[in-house]
Amino acid sequence: MRIERVKLYAPELEPLRRFYRETLELPLSEDGANAFTVQAGASRLTFERAGSDSDEAPYYHFAFNVSANKIAESVDWLNGKEIPISPVNGRTIVRSESWDSDSVYFFDPAGNIVEFIARHRLRNRSVKPGFSSEDIENVSEIGCAADDVNELSRLLRERLGASVYLGGDDLFTPLGDEEGLIILSSLRRNWLGSNKPVRIFPLEITVRTGKPGEWPILHYPYSVRTY
């Protein structure tokens, strides 16, 4: 499943614009007073100014696929840019045997939990030395908080034709594949790579399925577009 675009919300855009454009060196593809978009490889990541009626500033978890052989280099790259890495159980690089992947977590200026993930089942090794923004291939995960993971999973599997990726339960269910995953997470846990509880905030996701459509997601402030 390919995630073409993700739209997230934030109260302050300028720190995010500088972070993604200047620090992570992602090209700015759209810009305006109330929103901007960067090109992250094959995906677009949009931030729109959040309304002032929210009691809590939105924050999200999302991941970028990076070149499978560059996770260690990505740590050096982040360190060189003075971006603190968020360890998990004391580990800078988090290994998942079941997913055959290695991940690094860090925060952006809005407090979003950002992940670089090297998926070794993908044939996306790079022969170029070091790490650069060219090794950021796409938005490969977007977290969706759910008060009922199983209910939301059933709906999205039906609408998107997506399958559960390597198993799930009522706390955590990923839908899709290595190219793109919608991560359904219960409100009863924290986002990995942080001590932040999973919370529901508005977001929009655009995925390629071959069947155009747009629809709301139950009672959630989410919108999914397909084409």
Brief write-up:
This protein is 14% helix and 40% strand. It is mainly beta. It is globular.
Task: Please write out the topology.
Blueprint: E1 2-10, H1 14-23, E2 28-31, E3 35-40, E4 43-49, E5 61-66, H2 71-80, E6 94-96, E7 101-107, E8 113-119, E9 136-146, H3 149-160, E10 172-177, E11 180-186, E12 203-208, E13 213-217, E14 220-226
Parallel strand pairs: 1-4, 5-8, 9-11, 12-14
Antiparallel strand pairs: 1-12, 2-3, 3-4, 5-9, 6-7, 7-8, 10-11, 13-14
What's the CATH architecture name?
Answer: Roll
Intertermini distance: 12 Å
Number of helices: 3
Poorly predicted regions are: none
How are the strands of the biggest sheet laid out side by side?
2-3-4-1-12-14-13
CATH topology: 2,3-Dihydroxybiphenyl 1,2-Dioxygenase, domain 1
Class by helix and strand content? mainly beta
Structural features, described:
- With 227 residues, the protein is mostly beta strands.
- The protein has a single domain (2-226), classed as 2,3-Dihydroxybiphenyl 1,2-Dioxygenase, domain 1 (Roll), CATH 3.10.180.10.
- The protein contains three helices and 14 strands.
- A seven-stranded mixed β-sheet has the order 2-3-4-1-12-14-13, covered by helices on one side. A seven-stranded mixed β-sheet has the order 6-7-8-5-9-11-10, covered by helices on one side.
- Strand 6 and strand 7 form a beta hairpin.
- The protein starts with a strand and ends with a strand.
- The model has no long low-confidence stretch (mean pLDDT 96).
